């Protein structure tokens, strides 16, 4: 059995590795031989701490990702997020590979954002607004900076201290980040808006979003979570990683029944149109599908030799 621990997967992982792996996974998700199974969401003995199980298969790969979000880790100085990917040896039904993937999961999630933005955001997008100040928000910004030449990055956080911390992390990498004066001005200035939070209510108002903006909800991956205002839905074209899952546990659980959703894999493969013109508002919901985990685990195993 192959085992790659957290230190090694973090060493091998990168935005450069994640982008093609996740692009391939999103295209694979719409193929007839792909299956993504219902997400299991549970909580630990302390109900503030939760875990998820996501599983999927293709013609040549099957596996499970177990993710955890332990809020109580703050008190002991550990990351809130943990992750482990298990790939089956399909010839005997046993686990053939285990990849610990805490940092890798951050690359994987950010890559989905970047792949979708590359397909949907205007080519002249230069201003990014990010809601959220945690570790994942930093990865989102880094990934987007690879696919668009960002000239301004506006950070919106609940506390000035955390916003300042993220700005410092980004500017240390040479990225043009600054704390936003307020959410409304940050939205009205943006070409791209990304939310990476655990919010359960909209973070801004629909009328603050101007025509031509691309938005991505990266934090809604459970029932009750919500980052975007539903008032956007009748003004925007809606895309996601997997429509059934997005309606169940993603941002589009809040969309009216029958709202058209397009799998981003269909846009990437040329089977469906993406942005039609510079006035389109496009929204991408990333609830996170297990095929992304399987594909990035396979990429790490190949890199490990």
TrEMBL record:
Gene3D superfamilies: NAD(P)-binding Rossmann-like Domain, ornithine cyclodeaminase, domain 1. InterPro entries: NAD(P)-bd_dom_sf, ODC_Mu_crystall, ODC_N. It comes from Seohaeicola nanhaiensis. Pfam families: OCD_Mu_crystall (PF02423). This is Ornithine cyclodeaminase family protein. It comes from the Bacteria.
């Amino acid at each position: 059995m192959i085992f790659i621990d957290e230190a090694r997967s973090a060493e091998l992982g990168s935005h450069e590795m994640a982008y093609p792996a996740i692009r391939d996974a999103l295209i694979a998700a719409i193929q007839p031989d792909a299956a993504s199974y219902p997400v299991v969401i549970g909580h630990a003995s302390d109900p503030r701490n939760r875990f998820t199980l996501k599983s999927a298969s293709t013609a040549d790969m099957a596996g499970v990702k177990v993710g955890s979000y332990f809020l109580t880790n703050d008190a002991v100085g550990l990351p809130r997020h943990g992750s482990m990917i298990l790939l089956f040896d399909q010839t005997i039904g046993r686990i053939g590979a285990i990849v610990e993937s805490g940092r890798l999961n951050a690359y994987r999630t950010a890559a989905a954002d970047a792949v979708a933005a590359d397909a949907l955001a205007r080519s002249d997008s230069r201003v990014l607004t990010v809601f959220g100040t945690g570790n994942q928000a930093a990865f989102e910004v880094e990934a987007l900076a690879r696919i668009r030449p960002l000239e301004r990055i506006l950070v919106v956080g609940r506390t000035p201290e955390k916003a300042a911390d993220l700005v410092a992390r980004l500017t240390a990498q040479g990225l043009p980040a600054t704390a936003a004066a307020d959410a409304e001005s940050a939205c009205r200035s943006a070409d791209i808006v990304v939310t990476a939070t655990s919010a359960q209510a909209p973070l801004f108002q629909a009328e603050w979003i101007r025509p031509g903006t691309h938005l991505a909800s990266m934090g809604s991956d459970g029932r009750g979570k919500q980052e975007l205002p539903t008032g956007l839905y009748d003004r925007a074209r809606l895309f996601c990683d997997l429509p059934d899952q997005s309606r169940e546990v993603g941002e589009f659980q809040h969309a009216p029944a029958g709202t058209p959703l397009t799998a981003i894999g269909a846009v990437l493969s040329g089977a469906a149109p993406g942005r039609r013109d510079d006035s389109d508002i496009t929204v991408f919901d990333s609830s996170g599908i297990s095929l992304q985990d399987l594909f990035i685990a396979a990429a790490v195993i190949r890199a490990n030799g």
